[in-house]
Amino acid sequence: MRIAMLSYRSKPHCGGQGIYLRHLSRELTALGHSVEVFSGQPYPVLDDGVRLTKLPSLDLYREPDPFRVPKLREFRDRIDVEEFLTMCLAGFPEPKTFSRRVSRVLKERAREFDIAHDNQVLGSGMLDIEGYGLPLITTLHHPISFDRRIDLSQTRNPWRKLTLRRWYGFLRMQARVARQARLIMTPSETSKKDIAQDFGVDPARMQVILLGVDDMFVPPSTPRVPGRIMAMASADAPMKGIVTLLEAFAKLRTERDAELVLVTKPQPGGRTEKVIERLGMGPHVRFVSGISDEELVHLMGSAEVACVPSLYEGFSLPTAELMACATPLIVSRAGAIPEVVGPDGLCADLVTPGDVGELKTALADMLDDPERRARMGAAGRQRVEEMFSWRAVAVKVAAAYESVIADFHRNPPAPTSKDTD
């Protein structure tokens, strides 16, 4: 098959969507399919044989100058103007503006592909693609409505609440587009249930396909660092539960020598840095970002305990990757995380999300029990080997493509209304 994969921001270190895109495109190519990725900034890291077509945005959120003001010569068309004005009004424009850019390109190139795969863009421009004679399938990792609820619940400032509601304004559009999708693939039963509830999507038009873990994630060949705890967060956001972990770690530090390594890039002067300063944990917390895949695997294998304190996850690839490294886990009983780790106590200890005392006790107990850590790490590794393979994911996704293509030819798309969001 000739596959067009569509993703508005795709760098692996920006989150699970970029990891999904890289590994799935590689495995589909290995199965003999032709894959071309269409992406805005930050662009993806792709493997040999996968083609990249860049659809540049104004890149308004790039580091080190997020929310920048572009120069006049940077504006190319009305989509760029809309993107900038939406940012100025505190909205997040990228899903909509990317979908319009990729729709414009695919209108001219639709005959070059057998199917288009939307990687959670869910922008209004996606509704045009089937009208060009190109079937469309959608991956929805989890409804961002959960991020919105968590962000609002942890914000007391009225002005901040107002700007957050404006920022998440794209959700109405995403829900509308999701309800019109021919088939939605999602990585967990939890996400399927939540998409049905929050976006009003018919469960009969959703298919659960688990995610995979790359073969590079392996148990360590050197001893782990005594007292090292690590956590990964693709974003410095309340949903990742980092504040809960920091407060639990501060309590733990009153009893023993330990260090915390956070694989994330905190926002300068943001909430995480302020909490670390308030707790006086600066000398004992280390941030790591921008490292290579090999360095990340080494870091995962160096920790005696890893923690996933998220308040919600639609799957949690870092959880599965840590299991592949045989690193014992303490995770939140939240979202799809229990689906990933399996029965409580076998591959991970599950704790109540947001409960500082329970998390601190679980960390202390785990650090004090090396035999249990070894058993838990081995069980996690075995679970990954049995359940989480990117090759198996690609085979199932390719079968879903074939089903959607057949359905498209049996049931051609009806005319759709233009976006008014």
Structural account:
- By secondary structure, the chain is an alpha/beta fold.
- It folds into two domains: 2-212 and 390-410, Glycogen Phosphorylase B (Rossmann fold), CATH 3.40.50; 225-387, 3-Layer(aba) Sandwich (Rossmann fold), CATH 3.40.50.
- Helices cover 42% and strands 15% of the residues.
- It contains 15 helices and 13 strands.
- The chain has helices at 16-30, 78-88, 94-109, 145-153, 158-167, 170-179, 189-199, 242-253, 271-279, 293-302, 317-324, 337-341, 356-367, 370-387, 390-410, and strands at residues 2-7, 34-39, 51-54, 115-119, 136-139, 184-186, 206-208, 225-232, 259-263, 285-288, 303-308, 329-332, 348-351.
- It has a seven-stranded parallel beta sheet with strand order 3-2-1-4-5-6-7. The protein has a six-stranded parallel beta sheet with strand order 10-9-8-11-12-13, sandwiched between helices.
- Helix 2 (78-88) runs antiparallel to helix 3 (94-109), helix 8 runs parallel beside helix 9 (271-279) and helix 11 (317-324) crosses helix 14.
- The longest helix has 21 residues, at 390-410.
- It is globular and about 65 Å long.
- The chain starts with a strand and ends in an 11-residue tail after the last helix.
- 44% of the residues are buried.
